Amino acid sequence: MAKPVSIEVWNPNGKYRVVSTKPMPGTRWINLLIQQDCRVEICTQKKTILSVEDIIQLIGDKCDGVIGQLTEDWGEELFKALSRAGGKAFSNMAVGYNNVDVNVATKYGVAVGNTPGVLTETTAELAASLTLAAARRIVEADEFMRAGLYDGWLPHLFVGNLLKGQTVGVIGAGRIGSAYARMMVEGFKMNLIYFDLYQSTRLEKFVTAYGEFLKANGEKPVTWKRASSMDEVLQQADIISLHPVLDKTTYHLVNKERLSKMKKEAILINCSRGPVIDEAALVDHLRENPMFRVGLDVFEDEPYMKPGLSEMKNAIVVPHIASASKWTREGMATLAALNVLGKIKGYPIWFDANRVEPFLNENTPPPAACPSIVNAKALGLPVSKL
Ligand SMILES: NC(=O)C1=CN([C@@H]2O[C@H](COP(=O)(O)OP(=O)(O)OC[C@H]3O[C@@H](n4cnc5c(N)ncnc54)[C@H](O)[C@@H]3O)[C@@H](O)[C@H]2O)C=CC1
Ligand SMILES: O=C(O)C(=O)CO
Questions:
Q1: In the chain, is it the N or the C terminus that has fewer CB atoms within a 10 Å radius of its CB?
Q2: 364 Cβ partners below 8 Å, 6+ apart?
């Protein structure tokens, strides 16, 4: 028998029981649920990653919906328990939902929500930060200063890479990949090469227009290219940033063979999901190519790193913080709560998951809709006409 899990309860007499497996930033999400007659139970257990058994306990005998985290394994056992407790909705507090078996959720009639859009710029900014930190060797230089090793300016001290005029490669030019590409093109006048299964017309138009602007001002225009294969990006780009979803097609997308195709002094950034890179192969590559650098926000076996990675001077590692700005995290909590609430109340699905701003305006009530339900079509849920 698993140990009881500690919880905090809001609005104990609410009609609908909604469980959040973690305390989440801000209070708007709690207030929105309470205003619509929900009893909100927040797990306060001091344990970073809850087990399936812990969550089954939290679900209990009656539960209308759950807000969960990307660290949790939402598969057969949890959706069965949720459905048995009368649950209709689950939402990840994340845009990525590779921790959720959506087919199983659909089988049990449970809607699966995610939180797109609100984290796009914040995540792209972290990818840009890692790019700059890797290009200019900021972490190494900081460690050097703190160790008291600086004894005067030297022509060769921490020489890194100039971004201006170089080529930035983006794999997965969706919301975040496109936002990152724009930052690097506009901010550092880099040329763009991207690979995605779909054409990103908006991104291409942006780079074209910015190139024309530069030309009109007597500067060298930036350019863009849609690559016909991922390898083309790896061979041509000086900086490569990974932004695809994690699924069967993107598991170990960057492996030993592909690493060997990249330039010896290239910089690789990953703010998508750890398993997109074969991390053991990456450690070998970093060891054999000291001028090759990486900036990683995500890891193959989080929270662990593959042996050897933490010793590599040419790697910058941060603990999955790409969406960690206050506004974004509060917004993610709000979208996740509204996904669950909307399904419980029988609201339709918002017409465009890429345009969720109306749900984030704190001065107006949110639309009566679920912001983003990934299995809406499979469940035959109606779409909002708003
Ligand atoms: N590190 C972090 O904290 C965060 C990580 N993420 C990750 O970033 C991912 C992307 O998020 P969004 O940009 O909002 O999603 P999105 O759906 O807008 O973009 C993903 C893009 O990947 C492309 N893609 C899919 N398979 C591909 C393949 N085999 N090769 C090339 N491209 C492929 C899709 O066509 C799409 O354009 C999320 O699924 C999540 O895993 C998102 C937010 C924060
Ligand atoms: O949203 C996601 O997918 C994350 O990884 C955390 O923001």
A1: N
A2: 358
Six-digit token string for 322: 């790409």
Ligand 2 binding site (Cβ under 6 Å of any ligand atom): 70, 94-96, 119, 323
Q: Is 320 a catalytic residue?
A: yes
Q: What is the pLDDT of residue 56?
A: 98
302 among known catalytic residues: yes
* Superfamily of domain 122-315 in the CATH hierarchy: NAD(P)-binding Rossmann-like Domain (3.40.50.720)
Burial of 209 from C-beta contacts in 10 A (0-12 / 13-18 / 19+): exposed
3-state secondary structure of 129: helix
DSSP string, 151-194: -S--TTTT-----TTSEEEEE--SHHHHHHHHHHHHHH--EEEE
In ligand 1, which atom is closest to the CA atom of 247?
26
Q: What is the mean pLDDT of residues 77-88?
A: 98
The token pair at 205 is: 């138009």
CATH number for 5-113+345-377 (one of 3.10.20.30, 3.10.290.10, 3.20.20.510, 3.40.50.720): it is: 3.40.50.720
Q: For ligand 1, what atom is nearest to the CA of residue 322?
A: 3
- Bridge partners of 171, per DSSP, are 195, 242
- Portions of the chain given CATH number 3.40.50.720: 5-113+345-377, 122-315
User: What is the residue-averaged pLDDT of the chain?
Assistant: 97
* Cα–Cα distances in angstroms (integers) from residue 146 to residues 58, 63, 132, 138, 141, in the given order: 46, 52, 20, 12, 9
Q: Which atom of ligand 2 is nearest to the CA of 96?
A: 3
| Ligand 2 pocket mutation, candidates 115, 323, 332, 339, criterion most atoms within 8 A of CB | 323
pTM of the shown model: 0.98
Residue 262 near residue 231 (C-beta atoms within 8 A): no
Question: Is the per-residue pLDDT at 181 higher than 70?
Answer: yes
Distance CA 386, CA 378 (A): 21
Beta bridge partners of 16: 38
